[in-house]
Structures are given as C-alpha cells and as structure tokens.
Design a protein that fits this description.
Blueprint lengths: L6 E4 L4 H18 L6 H8 L6 E7 L2 E9 L2 E6 L8 H10 L6 E6 L3 H9 L3 E12 L14 E4 L6 H11 L11 H8 L9 E6 L2 E11 L5 E9 L8 H15 L4 E7 L3 H9 L3 E13 L4
Parallel strand pairs: 4-5, 10-11
Antiparallel strand pairs: 1-2, 2-3, 3-4, 5-12, 6-11, 6-12, 7-8, 8-9, 9-10
C-alpha cells in the first residue's frame, strides 16, 4: 500500500510540476556539489513526463523529493532539508515495487547511504564511472597532427550524419553513447552550452575518422569538460585519440578555464592510461556508481 505521504503523478508534465522538480534538483546539486541527475535524465525531464511514472512527496504543491521511472531507469532526488527521515527509502520502495522490469539507478557520488538503499531494494553494483580532473594552468603538450589528417570544427547542418556513424562505430559496445540518435544530437545542439567551435572533427580525405566534443560548464566554478572523444575503429592505434584530446584541451585552456574534467569507465584501462599520461587524476569520491536490479517477471 502506498504510504500516505506520497502521491503519484503520471503523464504529461505541467509548468508547476516542472518548476517544483527543478527546485529539488537544484537544491540537491548545491548541497552535494554534484548534479543528482545525469545529462540524459535532465534533458528527458525538461522535455516532459509523458510515458513515465513519477512519485513525489508530500504533494505537488510542496515537493520535498521524488522518484522517477523512465526508460527502465530509476532516479531518486530528495531535498537536503528533508533527508534523514526515510523519505528516500519510501519513494524508492514505491517506485521499485510498481514494476517487475529490470531497472538501473545511478548514485552520482560513491555514497554509502546510496549503496545501503540499493542493497535493501535488491540492486547490485554493476558499473563505476570515474570523474578524472586536470588543471589547465600549466603548459600543455604540443599538438602533432598525423599526416593526411585535417581537423576542423563541426558544422551544424552538414556533419550530423557523419558524426552519428562514427560515434556508433567507436562506441558500439557502450550502453549509452553508442545508441545516440539524431534526435539526441539535435537536443544537445539546441542546448545553450553547445559551441561548434569546441567540437573538433578529424578527417582523412572525405572520411571522418575521429572527434573531440568539448563542453564548458558555467559553474560555479566555471570549468571545461572532455565531453566525448571517439576514434573510428578503422583509424585506432595511430595517435588520433591523444591528438584530438590535446586539441580540445588547448581550446579549453584558451578560454581561460582553470580545470577540465572527463568521465571514463573505471575498467577502460587503455583510456585511463591515456588520460593519466596527460595529467588527469581520479579521487575515490569522484565516482558515479550504477546499480542494477534484474527483472522479476
């Protein structure tokens, strides 16, 4: 039976609901120093709740926390001043017991409380996503472009199809990045942060062989991100990844940014090694953890 402190709101969003949810997300981000929703979830929330399930507490007029089921994923956010009273467990329990489907959930930070909650609801730890950081205050290595390669910025209206094809090849086994669609790309191009001048494409003749898409976070503090670096499987092993990474780092440093971050799977040894050689470091608390529950049907 649903706890009386939780109400369900399923279907289309409203301006009032959207504003209330954004307020909870913003307060959690400010208190925790990290966004409680990843970029894909934030975009999905912004574009409406149709086809998803949302539980809020205690009411839509005063949202202290919410559990959101969408695309076989569970997102849970509780306002900082409402924590410690079991509200998160109540919300998550109601959401999880509403379906027998397999589910995933992210903890954006290696939080013991999140691990305990996940375990109590039958979730297991399945992925660690590292945040790696690097200062941009010192000198960067010079860029050496391989012979026959031309690097230029992304052009909206011209390069979408070529980029989607190379991205799908480069991340064929990645559970999120490799499934990026034209609609996903268009959504990000429409975002205020998008800047084609920081989206670098490497060409060999007419063939796109790699890319480095950078991002600037206005903060606070203002910092850069190695948003995604990809190299076509047909062009790997020739130093393109390092060259493209450095191209983006020089661009971000030229914008006056002091720090750059990136996200990498903890078990991607080759990528971690490349980033470490470029001066990126990882702290244990800079870990996003994905939990998974198998389907019960």
């Amino acid at each position: 039976m649903r706890p009386p402190s939780i109400v369900s709101s399923v279907g289309e969003s409203s301006p009032e609901t959207d504003e209330a949810l954004r307020a909870v997300v913003a307060s959690a981000a400010e208190a925790d120093g990290a966004e409680p929703l990843d970029e894909a979830a934030q975009l999905a929330l912004r574009h409406g709740l149709a086809g998803t399930s949302l539980w809020v507490a205690p009411s839509l007029a005063d949202v202290q926390g919410f559990a959101w089921l969408h695309d076989d994923a569970l997102d849970l956010v509780v306002r900082p001043d409402a924590r410690g009273a079991g509200l998160g467990h109540e919300l998550a329990s109601v959401a999880v017991t509403s379906t027998t489907d397999a589910l995933t959930a992210w903890s954006h930070g290696n939080h013991p409380a999140a691990a305990a909650l996940a375990g109590s609801l039958g979730f297991e730890r399945v992925r660690d996503l590292w945040v790696m950081r690097k200062s941009l205050r010192g000198a960067l290595p010079t860029i050496t472009v391989p012979e026959g390669v031309d690097v230029r910025p992304f052009e909206v209206g011209r390069d979408e199809d070529a980029w989607l094809a190379v991205n799908a090849d480069a991340f064929a086994h990645h559970p999120e990045q490799g499934r990026t669609t034209r609609a996903d790309l268009d959504e990000r191009i429409a975002e205020p942060w998008f800047d084609p001048a920081g989206f670098f494409l490497a060409w060999q003749g007419d063939e796109l062989v790699g890319f480095h898409w950078t991002k600037v976070h206005e903060g606070p503090p203002r910092h850069g991100e190695v948003y995604v670096v990809g190299v076509s499987p047909r062009a790997q092993g020739g130093g393109l990844g390092r060259m493209l990474t450095l191209t983006g780092l020089h661009h971000l440093a030229g914008l006056g940014l002091d720090e750059v971050v990136l996200y990498v799977e903890s078990d991607n040894g080759p990528a971690v090694a490349v980033y470490e050689k470029l001066g990126f470091t990882h702290a244990p608390e800079d870990t996003h953890v994905q939990y998974s529950r198998q389907g019960l049907g």
